[in-house]
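pasting for ref. prot 1 ->
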Amino acid sequence: MRLLLICSCYIVVIFSSFARAGGIDLPAISASQQGTSNSNGAEAADAAVLYYNPAGMSYLRGRQLSISGTLLAFRGKVEDRGSTGTPEPFDSSSDEGRQLGPDGVDPYAAGAAGSFWPKILALGSIFYTTQYNDNITLGIGIFSPGGGNINYKSDWSGAYQVDAIALELVNINPSISMRFDDKHSIGFGVSLVGGHLRYSTQLDAKGLQPYLLSKALNNLNANTLTVTPEVQSIINSVCNIKLVINSVCGINVGDVLPGSAIDALSSPLADVVVDPSSTASGLIEMYGYGFGYNAGYMYGFNDRSRLGLSFRSAVEVNLRGQSEWSTERLKARPVIGTTIVSLLNNGGDPDLGNFLSDYLLPDTTTKAIFNIPARVSLSYFNEISDKFDIMFDYTFIKSSVMRELSVGFAVQKDSNGDSVVLSDAKIPLKWRDSYKTSLGLNYHYDSMTTFKTGIQFDKTPIPSKESRHPALPESDRYMISFGFNHKINDNISVDGAYSLLAFADSESEYRNNCRYDRPEGDAGPCTGIGGTFRGKFYDTYANILSLQINSKY
């Protein structure tokens, strides 16, 4: 049988939530770079330059090791502004379902989100470089290009779009640089990017009821589902207010429900079949990897200034995993509900959750391809005096390649040996190209200590409130940083940095147009249940603290 429902297509947004696109970079790869708000890619101060421009390794002498750790304390607020649940099936006149949020009618999506970031997020990096000879330097970096953890409350108004997300990405990046003379050097590296993704959401049990019943009844191969007095009373009620066609109104007790009646009665019958206290949730966990490369060029004007150009390729991360649907809390009402379910279920089991997990929503394997966009960076460094250095960086990100994200589900067999097919869950992103720019300053207090500062602006790739999903409360970002480098001796130094990262207030009016009976545009069938999230994200910021140890030998 063909199933085009339940698993909301919101699940695919998880792949964009922490992608290296536009303003969604992690703000700190290393403390030495964070201190100038990531503007010193051309400075080549330590082994962490491998990430920003591998050609900069040519300016490092001997063997160098940099180990950095970062703590990020995020916090943000969200206000509901009229979110709605799953629209009624077979109704093309409206994309609006029942109202959610504190003023809505659904007790399972009526709470406030409160803080939607974790209090503390930790990450780290390690970079090592060694001179092979006077002209060639080798290096390797292990770092996180993106990742994080967002937690909402399980009963907030967007619970049917996203409950919690956790993503970890690790990049292993061996590199090589070659110095031709005092002015020209190049670098090249390859990347192995590994990822782990965990996403959970609450399922709109009330909104899904008519879809579930309609699909279940239309796949019934028995002629024993007859109209009971309870069903007859519902038919009479809806006929009295002229909500259904006359042919349905002519059905009597003892008649077998035809397909046209099932479509027309799916919504009112669902209230009889499904217990209104029912809840359900979904979990998807995936692992994967992808390959890419990076390259760079560095031009030294003189001993005091240089210009860098670097490129990181797009990376296709192939993810594979498992979907797990918690349907045990979906219960049928006593008598009529359990009777109908027992007729549908092989072996007469009256448990609605068991029926759904077997015939409509089995646990299955999942797959997806997540494209990390390519980027190109231009950076400049200049020692303007013995006391001051200035630097800047401009990075362009080809985030417009993120047009759509999709998750595929493997075909499973039900107890009767029939195929249970869930169409791909799809979401259009329609992102635009984006950029980030930063400006930094070093102040050499003395021969042992340098103080740093910098500012950074990140342009979000999200073009409008209609494209802003609650799993990605992303907007333009502003960062100011302060840092230092202190030499303990000729071989060991320490970097420290603090940054305040602020997000611009933003609005969301994200509508899932994919419906069971009305696929999205001409893209073909898709898994989705509709509904709209409306809200405002505000007072979103992060305090970032990093510490780094550098060793030369």
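and prot 2 ->
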Amino acid sequence: MNNPLPLLQRERLQLLYLSLLLCSTLLIGSLAPASPAWLSRFAALVSDSYHAWQPRPASTQVVFIDIENTSVQAHGRWPWPRHLLAEALLRLDQAEAIALDMLFAEATTEADDLALAEAMQQLPLVNGVFLNGPQARHLTAEGYAQLLDSSLFQIQHAQLIQAQELELPTPLLSGASPVLATLNILPDADQHLRHYPLAFWVDDLAVPNLGVQLLRLAEQQPLLIDGRQAQFLGQTLQLDTLGRIKLSYYPLASYQRIPLADVLAADWDPARLAGKLVLVGVSEAGVTDLRATPVGYLPGPLVHVTLISNLLEGHIIQPIATLHWWLGLALLALLLIWIYYWPSALWRLAGYLLLMISLYVGAALLYRMSNLWLEAFYPLLLVLVAMLVGELILFTRHKRQGEQLQSAFSSYVAPALVKRIVQQGSALQLGGKRQELTLLFSDLRNFTPTTEALETEALVELLNQYFGCMITQLHRFQGTLDKLMGDGIMALFNAPLDDPEHAYHACLSAAAMQQALEAFNARFAEDDVRRLAMGIGLNTGPCVVGNIGAAGRFNYTAIGDAVNTAARLESATKGLTDLNGRPVDILLGPSTYALVKTRLGQYCAPVGAVQLKGKAQAVEAWALHWRDLAADLWP
């Protein structure tokens, strides 16, 4: 198996990730339709940018007659004398319908008020009322009668914003208007205007908003509201819990705007507004109520114009259906699980980033092409949570895996190799694989007198010092300590990490061990029982290497005929001499000699055919004269 982390631990971590992902999906999916205000603000930071993808202009059927800077320069600061406004309104007489985004709550001169009232009576005009303003009052019987004819009648189970007080136009101007409408637009929690209330409850009357009332007057079509749905102009509108629809804003330059100064000019052509819907309002700096919107600050009247244009052009934004929302989240969760199992952290990061970009672009395209609104923030939040949780779990998993590898190998592999093993742990085949190895066996000669002469504590101390010197030389040349066997050592080369020069390194390690033993003995007198002698056998061949043993009790080792041959070669060194009569301390098998003879042939001498215990046929072997080698390499 590739992963040394115990199977049960891996399964628990995977189950933990899947459980957390499922909980996150359900929680985020449920939050989206009714998230708290603070979370909605974060969502808006993402979705407000969709409006920059709006490819369509505002409707040319609705015109904003704007009391702006040039109009003020020509006719004075707002508010103007009402006879001047009356004159301007009469010049709009070819419009299909007119709405006034202004409130005439107080009387002025009798002549001016009468002139304005007479002008209103001649026009298809919507006059405004303001809810819950600073001078608002509770609805009186007279006010109720004024609003009754302007209210909605085909309405049931409607969840609308409730207003307790309002400001009405003066009785003269209120009675002169065909219909009344509310001027209010309720902002979101962050004071940005993203939604438009179709109507408000005032007492038991459902009073339409200005844009809606203008369209009702012009099109002579009813607005029907039933719970969270409305029917208007042949369209089905999905409402939020406050009876609002989401606005789709247009590029500012696409709104049709005419300064009121142009209307009052001598060369004004009333035919410019023939068949148009007209909204009259103020945008002069210091007078108008500039409102924060997803596309920047706009004069309040343009928000009404946006609603009218949305309805006329069929640009009403519709939310994603609940079923599609949950199916999309389920698909997203499956993609996140797929990415979680990618082996490379860099590829996983790229996958998460690509998924997040795709989510945002997909949501913006849904808005651009189909007027469907997907709050990308919530699936993006799910990706972010899944990425953080997944990478934390994988980090924990890899950390535990690294700790286990380090614990498993640090006792018999050089520290530098342990670091590489931990870094490359996923590439190791720790369950057992066939691989060519060079095996090293060493054993102390004539050690029995030493064991008999020394006290147990002294003997253990001597062996610890000896083994410490030998293991250092093994690690020096990428050798792996397999096991200590009494006073013997078994070591592997070319495992657990690949070493293309394993035979050469094993020979160097054997020579270094003999040199280290000579230095070790130099501390003692010639006749001291603590002086040690050692024989080493080296052999190369195919072995099975890995964690071998039973459940809960296994060891990293190698098995195979090459292992047995190396052990027998070490035993054969006792009293052996080469063909030149030189004593043999290190004996190489034929496969090892074949791999190193090009580089170490001058240090090797044949010993002829050696009959190894348990072998039917004698084995050709070579002695490695380590003193000659050490003198050249480590003088």
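DSSP finds 20 helices and 29 strands in the chain.
The radius of gyration is 46 Å.
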